Amino acid sequence: MPVQYRISGKGAESIAGSIEEAISAGRLAPGDTLPPIREVAAQVGVNVNTVAAAYRLLRDRGAVETAGRRGTRVRDRPATTPRSLLGLGVPAGARDLSTGNPNPALLPIANVRLPAGSHTPVLYGESAVSAELAEFARATLTADGVGADHLTVTSGALDGIERVLTAYLRPGDRVAVEDPGWANLLDLLAALGLSAEPVRVDDDGPLILEMARALRRGVRAVVVTSRAQNPTGAALSADRAGALRSLLAGRSGELLVVEDAHCAGIAGTPLHSLAGSPRRWAFVRSASKAYGPDLRLAVLAGDRRTIERVHGRLRLGPGWVSGLLQEIAVGLWSDDAATRLVIEAEERYASNRSQLCAALADRGVAAHGRSGLNVWIPVTDEAVAITRLLNAGWAAAPGTRFRISTPPGMRITIADLASDEIDPLADAVVEAVHGTGRRSV
Ligand SMILES: Cc1ncc(COP(=O)(O)O)c(C=O)c1O
Q: pTM value?
């Protein structure tokens, strides 16, 4: 195949830069393999160590990954490329069920109006967490059994997770993550130079034996989604949460456990949290899914040291999450109409999940969707299944975005499905899956 890009430069940084350019311009596509180091060294006229250093830089920035004997290849969603250039577009006319988004018609943030003069300006030097938000968050977290003595606010769940991880971990450290798991978290780990240690999940959450194996492999941190696991919809059952708590509590004091609670309010299942165990822990409750992703706000609870580290570092960056946003969040949490809308959303999502899973089961296709916004369907061949589904007018998300070493699948976001879409969608999924050989888990 003719090479559509040119690697150039004399130092590691400039060679890496030229490859980054080619990735952003689309001349090097996700999955493309980079040429062998020796070849590039000969072509550019530099030492092999320089090219190896350039490849290492790209790997540490989350642009490429090592693919065993197949060499080094461009990541699915290279962390150095802005979203606008990623080309994840869905063809015109297709019904887009690939996004993972909540239903915009069910988001309280759409109705926010700030009355003039209602906000007291927050100045430098004030507390990073507004007194009202702290009071509200404490009450709701404590009611859910999550210790709320130490709190901060971050710009969403992923920001909170990143801040907690970087408070303790260094490039090269291992982090146990769900497999399949949330694509953005996997991309974040790569961009931080952290190494993902896969832990398979079933509908009740991470498998105990797999988590024990990850711990034996020396992970420094564990990230678990308590409900609405993305992409499978898994939710920690009481038993699984109890077993995980015992397993994790028995570890050395330096293990960090981060719980991603991104779907509070609309998960559709009760919370069985890991919060409080072991000594270093963090629980991130995001407002994105229930109130609107644009709120960019999450409450982070944890042990004192963890929250202090996050606070201290936040102070040296954005400083704090805007008091305006905090005020809007508190306003929404205490507003009756907003609460009714969130309850309606939770019911609608639960009904869409169970109707789609039942329609698929009737047609002999296994699917998972215990909680949250998505249904996960194991398939034999993702590319074929996704293409067939797209030909029938439905865009689903390919499982490759979420998988490390688990079998293929595809994710369908059910948030804005209308009830008369369920049967035609199930028919199309059956066609797509049967065409690739049926598979159940
Ligand atoms: C597992 C998981 N955590 C967190 C988030 C997003 O949280 P935030 O918008 O607060 O960063 C998502 C969004 O899809 C998610 O799937």
A: 0.92
